[in-house]
Amino acid sequence: MEERILRRAQKDRAEGSSADEPRYPLLGLSRHRMELDGEGVTTLVAGAGCPLSCAYCINKSLLRQAPSFVTAAELYEKLRIDDLYFRATGGGPCFGGGESLLHAEFYERLRPLCPDWRFTAETSLNVSRETFIRCVPLFDAFIVDIKTLDPRIYERYTEKPLGPALENLAWLASHVAPEHLHLRVPLIPGYNDEADRDRTERSLREMGLIRIERFPYVIRPS
């Protein structure tokens, strides 16, 4: 099935049909989620692509799969099955995967199709400032997997510098109401400790952030 959809998307582009239409690299949908991905009933939309190489990434096998490339209209048709749940509970799609904020042009096409849904981005914020600024107005809430604010620990764990994520977080903290920002601070075995989490949480609160979740990573055999 994945190969058939991928071939169709490639064929469409080759023939020039909707050649300029942005397509989302869809890996899967998880419907009827409550209190997992933001407010109300949500549908998790998993997309391909991530700039980080986290040592304990729980989605490594998923991210190796070939995605189905869908247009905004095609994804809307998949999601509108849950329209009644979204409207009744104030929920909507939560985009994750992968790094949700890699797909700004796609969201610019999708959002006008469903303006009444609550859009949530599950993100590391480790994207370019240009892409970040384009995405922010299109989302109602952000779940930020910040991991740690220690640059050495962050780079050792993700293989990327902390700088872009921290700069984007500072921008969010000064432009978005704190109740719409959910920060996740994990205990990462072999990388950080409770003292590091205390420092990270203290720094986040000094930025005016109030919704901070602390939890331990559960390391599963690969």
CATH class: Alpha Beta
Multimerization state: single chain
Instruction: Name the CATH architecture.
Output: Alpha-Beta Barrel
Tell me how many strands there are: 8
The total number of structural domains is 1
What is the chain-wise order of helices and strands? HEEHEHHEHEHEHHEHE
Provide a concise account of the structure shown.
The chain has 222 residues and is α/β, with parallel strands linked by helices. The protein is 36% helix and 22% strand. The chain has one domain: Alpha-Beta Barrel (TIM Barrel).
Description:
It is a single chain. The protein has about 220 residues and is an alpha/beta fold. The protein has a single domain, classed as Aldolase class I (TIM Barrel, Alpha-Beta Barrel). Helix content is about 35%, strand content about 20%. An eight-stranded mixed sheet has the order 3-1-2-4-5-6-7-8. Helix 6 links the parallel strand 5 and strand 6 (about 140-145). Helix 3 (about 70-80) crosses helix 5 and helix 5 runs parallel beside helix 6. Residues about 1-10 and about 10-15 have low confidence and may be disordered.
Can you give keywords for this protein?
disordered N terminus; globular; eight-stranded mixed beta sheet; 9 helices; 36% helix; 222 residues; TIM Barrel; single chain; alpha/beta
List the helices and strands and how they pair.
Elements: H1 2-15, E1 24-34, E2 41-47, H2 60-63, E3 68-70, H3 72-79, H4 83-89, E4 92-97, H5 104-110, E5 120-123, H6 129-135, E6 141-145, H7 151-158, H8 163-175, E7 181-187, H9 194-206, E8 211-216
Parallel strand pairs: 2-4, 4-5, 5-6, 6-7, 7-8
Antiparallel strand pairs: 1-2, 1-3
Helix pairs in contact: 3-5, 5-6
